[in-house]
């Protein structure tokens, strides 16, 4: 006879211990971020905070974990506080308005994430006239990857024009408004689907402390409206399953079209809507019809993945992509990560590399770690209490699978660390999935263990927000991200480090020291002759030393070092050439000019003139005569060069010809 007592005891232990075990696992992720910040990049923000603040955060979070071992005391406390089971509409509006106020009042001190670099140069400008390009972008419709961005930028341009505010202020309005909409939509959805007041509180916390909310804190991107529309569509989608009315179905289509206007990612929702639409009208003639996992797999997932594979291998052919971003890419270039690794130094990152898999796992922790924790606990402890065959759960889970898979394959053009904002788009779907799961287990007493751990994880996410309100702390964070990018994705690492150091410009000595620390740190793994990113770190410092500190001798060292690692960097060659002239190293300047002329850099005419100029400074008069003659063949109207050519032919005071060029000493 089977011993049922042991089985019950075992199940009870699993239910009792799983929240604290999973919670401590999440706690460990943040401890690892503190100890190894260059690796655990999504949980490392505490490492850059004041020690008193960060250790207080860890202590408070650990205390929350321990509280979960006393669920009966938590239950008594909740009964005393009397958490209401129904959110009043005024409460939801007040909380949402408060969050909107926080989004507006506490924007990031600097923003280099995603494509913020496009808007950064112009954010403090006002708009006195709206261009025809902006009008076309706002009212046209396209499905290419950049169409949505152009639409939102055009909208913000119009907003700045009509309000007279700067573009930056209008972006703050934009982010705060849609952040408010997001919170109100979320709280309303939770209130409509969850009866238990404690679970409503937990679900509110799961979003209030979610790292992806940084998208609403003055982020110079279009993501605020995309996140809200995705959430709104999903909540409307779940509502459809309550009554299955045609009206809601067609409203979903209208919202989907609007979603496509603001971001092409909404295309991933189209197959699901089409499937639901067909199912809706098929059920009218066949009342016994129901949506099942097999139907969704056969009619949605399989076709979507088959089409995706076809596009990946035969349309975009990204399976063997170079990933090289040395030149500006077109909107359909490098869309997906390759399976075949490119050549070094881009060989450490491909679709199935450990670096990408770990980065994607790290990205998940920027969605909602509380939501992930709760889902993990439900799957481990309460999975048998879940009806996994409910139609809305099947379809929502399928949408999440499609989104999660798409973003796994998608190429983070600026690296996962700097493009993290784009990769949070599946977060609203995850949250809706969470509600559908909690809805079925809300009567379980496990909630008294989940509450303190959820609050603890929420506390652990605070450093992610706090670090973005201090230039110094954010600089340290970005430096760490830049190092991580260099060792993994590679592209955009030097720019990330450069942006990080810009934030230290008020303390030039410390900025210079940090730059040298990073250069020394990466030196061991740098590839001589084939390391553009490492070379750029040297040459950008050389450019600063030359242009701002007027120190050509020091600049010479950094620029020459940069070219050692990135010999094809023509901009560095041009700056080194200028340094050589200022240091009277004219022969080397001439050799550099020959290389620049061969590449026609920065343009053919300027390169030709520079070649003649350096030949004169190096007293290579025969070469200067030949170069000036070649120059006049192409630019015969250049009167100054004709005079130089004539004097060279006549040997007329050729030593003084260099005075016709101005070199600031």
Automatic annotation (TrEMBL):
The chain crosses the membrane at residues 12-32, 52-70, 91-110, 146-164, 171-191, 197-217, 224-242, 248-276, 296-315, 364-382, 394-414, 420-438, 450-469. It comes from the Bacteria. Keywords: Membrane, Transmembrane, Transmembrane helix. This is Uncharacterized protein. The lineage of its organism: Bacteria, Pseudomonadati, Bacteroidota, Flavobacteriia, Flavobacteriales.
